[in-house]
Write a structure and sequence with these properties.
InterPro entries: ClpP/crotonase-like_dom_sf, Enoyl-CoA_hydra/iso
Number of strands: 10
Shape: globular
Protein name: Enoyl-CoA hydratase
Mean pLDDT: 90
CATH topology of the largest domain: 2-enoyl-CoA Hydratase, Chain A, domain 1
CATH class of the largest domain: Alpha Beta
GO molecular function: catalytic activity
Distance between the termini: 28 Å
Pfam families: ECH_1
C-alpha cells in the first residue's frame, strides 16, 4: 500500500530484506500520529510476509527520528496514552508486553536492525532500543529528551535501557537527557557497530543479506523469541523453552537442510520450515 510519512522498499537477494524509512526529512522525521499508525501497519504486514527475512529501520535525510513532533506533543491530550487500541495485544500467541504502543518490534518474528543515520531522540531512541540489533553512523546522536520536556521515562524505556547499558548509565541518560555520541553509545553497549555516514546503510544491508541467505529463518525466529522472553523468565523456564524448541527444530526441514548443505559443501537453501 501507499504510505504518506514512511517509505517501505525491498532489496537484497530475492528482495528478502525490507527497508522501512521514516520519511519526513524536512522535520527530522519527527513522529506524528499518521507516521505512528503507518509504521505499526508496515511492521505488521512485513511480519506476515513470508518473502521477507530481515527488516531494516532507518531515516531519510539527516535524522533517524527526532522524537514526537512538537506541534502534536503540544496539544496531546493526557488520555491519549490510555487509548484502548494501544492497550490490547494483537496476537495472543506472543507476549502482550511486546505488543504495546512502541514496544512491538520484539514481537515481530523477523530480525529488526536499526540503522541510525542521525539524531535519535525521545521516541527515536526508544525505537532503536527495541530493535534486535543497532548500527549507527559516526555522526549519530542520541538523547532520551523526556526530562527536558517535563515528561517521564516513557514506553518501557526504564525497563529496556538499564538492561542495555546498565542502571548507572540509564539513570544518567534519563535524568540529564544529555546528548550521547555514537562512539560513547558503542562503548556503553547500546550499539553493535558504528560506520562512516556514507557507508552505514550499505554495511547494514550487507549484514542483513548475510542473515537473509546464510542462516535458517526458522532458527532466527525461535532465537528471537528466546532472547526477548528470557528477561521475563527464570533460568528454569528459559531451559524448558529451549528444550521444547530443540525438539521441534530437530524435526524441521531447516535442520535437515543445515546438515545436508554442510556435508555437501554448498550454499544453504533454507525455507524457514
Amino acid at each position: 500500500m501507499e504510505f504518506k510519512q514512511i517509505e517501505v522498499t525491498r532489496t537484497g537477494p530475492e528482495d528478502m530484506i525490507a527497508v522501512v524509512s521514516f520519511s519526513r526529512p524536512e522535520k527530522m522525521n519527527a513522529l506524528t500520529k499518521v507516521m505512528e499508525a503507518e509504521l505499526r501497519l508496515a511492521f505488521d504486514q512485513l511480519d506476515r510476509d513470508e518473502r521477507v527475512r530481515v527488516i531494516v529501520l532507518t531515516g531519510k535525510g539527516r535524522a533517524f527520528c527526532a522524537g514526537m513532533d512538537i506541534d502534536e506533543l503540544e496539544v496531546l491530550p493526557p488520555g491519549d496514552i490510555r487509548a484502548a487500541e494501544w492497550m490490547r495485544p494483537y496476537d495472543m500467541n506472543r507476549r502482550a508486553d511486546y505488543q504495546a504502543r512502541y514496544t512491538y518490534m520484539p514481537a515481530v518474528r523477523k530480525p529488526v536492525i536499526s540503522a541510525v543515520n542521525g539524531a535519535a531522540a525521545g521516541l527515536g531512541m526508544v525505537f532503536a532500543l527495541y530493535s534486535d540489533i543497532c548500527f549507527a553512523s559516526e555522526s549519530a546522536v542520541f538523547s532520551t529528551a523526556f526530562s527536558k520536556r517535563g515528561l517521564i521515562a516513557e514506553h518501557g524505556i526504564a525497563w529496556i535501557l538499564p538492561r542495555v547499558v546498565g542502571p548507572g548509565h540509564a539513570a544518567d541518560l534519563l535524568y540529564s537527557a544529555r546528548k550521547l555520541t555514537a562512539p560513547e553509545a558503542l562503548a556503553m553497549g547500546m550499539l553493535n557497530r558504528v560506520f562512516p555516514a556514507e557507508t552505514l546503510l550499505e554495511e547494514t544491508l550487507k549484514y542483513a543479506a548475510e542473515l537473509a541467505t546464510t542462516v535458517s529463518p526458522r532458527s532466527l525466529r525461535v532465537m528471537k523469541r528466546q532472547l526477548w522472553e528470557a528477561p521475563c523468565q527464570t533460568l528454569s523456564e528459559a531451559v524448558m523453552l529451549a528444550n521444547e524448541e530443540m525438539f521441534h527444530s530437530i524435526e524441521s526441514e531447516d535442520f535437515s537442510e543445515g546438515v545436508r548443505h554442510f556435508i555437501e559443501k554448498r550454499p544453504a537453501r533454507f525455507t524457514g520450515k
